[in-house]
Amino acid sequence: MGTIRTQRDTWVEEGLTALAAGGPDAVRVEALAKRLGVTKGGFYGYFADREALLAAMLDAWERESVDEVIDRVEREGGDPPARAQRAGLLTFSDDRLLPIDLAIRDWARRDEAVAARLRRVDNRRMDLLREMISTFCSDADEIEARSTLAFCLAIGRHFLAADHGGRSRIEVLTHAADLVFDRPR
Question: Where are the domains of the chain?
Fold first, then answer.
């Protein structure tokens, strides 16, 4: 019986975990093989080199954080503001995708190719917001402003350390989303 090879997706997933924890410098073939409990030889059955793994990781991140999120949002339905908010929660929740997304944003500051990929992903996310917001707002400038505010709220809230004057963070975030999505309080 031959040796069971570690699946390609397992290498990609372990690479994304390493990226989220330590940035692109933490994505090293030997370290990944050690964490997976395999030799690094199996890696080369799937990838020509580390750069090929990094590209596969970015592909997986884009697919999961945009394509799969949009598919799920459309499948679960709801009114446009609820769908837009669900997309943000799925993408920027504190469990799986958020640490990867934040690591890629940091990586994009130093790598033009990653920055171009991030721009493409963010443009698709913004297109979804524009589409949702245009269902209750017809002014193009206001649609762009509300979409930008919604996107900045989704990302920026993870960096904000401020207190909210006796209000809980969730109260403030909920009220901010109500303002952006024009929901009555």
Answer: 8-180
Query: What is the distance between the alpha carbons of residues 40 and 60, in angstroms, rounded to a whole number?
Result: 21
185 residues of the chain, pLDDT tens digit each: 444 446 999 999 999 999 999 999 999 999 999 999 998 888 998 999 999 999 999 999 999 999 999 999 999 999 998 899 899 888 887 688 999 999 999 999 999 999 999 999 999 999 999 999 999 999 999 999 999 999 999 999 888 899 999 999 999 988 999 899 988 77
Give strand ranges (E) for 2-149.
none
Calpha distance 90→88 (Å, rounded): 5
Q: Distance of alpha carbon 113 from its chain centroid, rounded? A: 17
In this structure, which topology does domain 8-180 adopt according to CATH? Tetracycline Repressor; domain 2 (1.10.357)
Distance CA 143, CA 84 (A): 13
